[in-house]
Amino acid sequence: MKIHEHQAQIKFDDILEHRLSVIFDFTQGIVSSFSDGYMQTMYQAVSEACEKSGNIVRSNEIGSPALSFLQALKNIQFGVDRAGKISRPEFHLGTDAFKKLEEDAERLGNKFKEEVERVTKEKEEEALAREAERLSRFKGS
Questions:
Q1: How many domains does the structure of the chain reveal?
Q2: Which residues pair with 80 in a beta bridge?
Q3: Disulfide: which of 4, 57, 130, 138 matches 72 by Cβ 3.0-4.6 Å?
């Protein structure tokens, strides 16, 4: 278990002078600090789980951010929610990584985009088929 800590201060003079904005700034600082800490812990846990399972695509080995994205898309399964709708995966990227991915996808052109659409459709069909199979085990039981 990881401990999350935050330290904050409010100057006594700010309170004496009725600067109420410091209360908002104080609480925003705490919320932001804890949020950042939790996000860092979550990404670290996900990263460790992926490393352990071997479910990793390394862009530097593939040589292309867009082709790495496509490979990651091929490696995962889509889900189906309670309403029977496809639940697509989320990809989390920093601003710079996202920009590189966009630029690389544009460079690769329509053929790349069509392949992403084909793989996405295939993954959606597989997810619906798995869900239909799962539900069939409960009907008539």
A1: 2
A2: 86
A3: 57
Print the domain residue range for 50.
Answer: 7-55
Q: Residue 119 has what pLDDT?
A: 97
Q: Which residues of the chain have pLDDT under 50?
A: none
Which residues have CB under 8 Å from 8's CB, separation 6+?
Answer: 26, 29, 30, 33
| Residue 1 included in any domain | no
Specify the pLDDT at position 141.
53
Distance CA 28, CA 17 (A): 20
2 belongs to a structural domain: no
Pick the closest to residue 50 from 76, 70, 69, 78 (CA basis): 76
Q: What is the pLDDT of residue 94?
A: 87
Question: Which residues are within 8 A (CB) of 89 and not within 5 positions of it... i.e. 6 or more apart?
Answer: 73, 76, 78
Global pTM? 0.70
Query: CA 69 to CA 48: how far, in whole Å?
Result: 19
